[in-house]
Model the fold of this input.
Amino acid sequence: MTPSPTFEGKRIILGVTGGIAAYKSAVLLRDLQKSGAEVRCIMTPSALRFLGKDTMSALTRQPVPVDVFPADSDVTESWSRHIQWAEWADLMLVAPCTANTLAKITHGLSDNMLTSTILAARCPIVLSATMDGGMYESPAMRMNRELAKKLGFHLIEPEHGYLASGLEDKGRLPENKAILNYIAEILSSNNTSPHILSGKKVVVTAGPTREYLDPVRFLSNPSTGRMGVAMAEAAKKLGAEVTLIHGKLADPVPDGIKTIEIISADDLFNAVQSHHEATDVFVMAAAVSDFKPATREEHKVKKDGAEMQIPLQPTPDSLKWLGENRRNGKVLIGFAMETENLIEAATDKLNRKKADFIIANTIGKSGSGFESDRNDVFLIGTKGTPSAFSGTKKDIAEKLLLSIFDNGSE
Ligand code: CTP
Done:
């Protein structure tokens, strides 16, 4: 039997919305408390139709706010309670989370205490969406779930089974044990690593770019984006707020990482520029095309038997631009893939692009680099000798960031 997770010392806000599964939230609250968590509860106005506010208030020994505007005009706390509670929490769990609340929070609405607190929160937010009939798989909900993931929310999949309507479908609230295990994973992945990037905003670029010649053909490369995704995950584990700017990826992006999808090197450049001001650390792992077709044909190019030349022009170099427009305190980490003289070529790249570090590897080493889960790299800084890292991309990503940020480079 797997032991129950322990949340000793953790502060959790349980958000309850107006779905029939709200009747289970009182027991969920008790189970969170039994696991050691200090729990507060926020309910939406419609949740009150399914579960008594006094029940949750008695169990938490705290008020259970519903509206943003306090009835009693107690300005000492209530007017900014959504901010105070958001700052207090180590994690927010919305269970059950209705289609309505999911739609609101993915669009930044803040029309009650729960949606306002979610907007203000900086801690991980876990949503356990429950719906009846075809609601969960409806096109709008599918879109909102995708959006929720892009915005960094953690989504627990509902269970398949009997629903309140009598239909059998996907949409049930999972057992409390499954919810607790899910939360434990998020809290422990936030915990086991030192939070050396806490409070830092990190942008990671990953995956290949595509430079279209016509509507169906493009220049690209076989990058899977795995190294960049591993760097993004590692930065998140170390406490950073992470945004991943990415081309086509081989694997889905883990929950909790904000994502921006790009296609071309120009898109990447625009996204990097627009994040420049607010970002503390850039990790530039994208495999960017250095050239793009000089013109993009509107229609598919037809073969006419003759040889064909494609005039190319250079793409913007995002890393170089960041190096040339650097602000104090920002850390710039580039990647280099070389076919020969790895250390010399990568050191030259470090200097040319004015980066703080280059993570360099050699193309062609079997089982490593492009299209592989493993990597063998050298970390090259402006000082000291290069150090070698080998292992799965996941393993070395955290080691690289620890090595960079534990050496006082910030
Ligand atoms: N890079 C970038 N924009 C480009 C090309 C590269 O931001 N247009 C970044 C990559 O994400 C990587 C670093 O620069 O962090 C080095 O990429 P690489 O392709 O190895 O180097 P190049 O700039 O292409 O240099 P060269 O072709 O001379 O090796």
Remarks:
- The CA atoms of residues 230 and 394 lie 5 Å apart.
- Residues 205, 265, 284, 286, 288, 290, 315, 317-319, 334-337, 349 surround cytidine-5'-triphosphate (CB under 6 Å).
- The first strand starts at residue 11 and ends at 16.
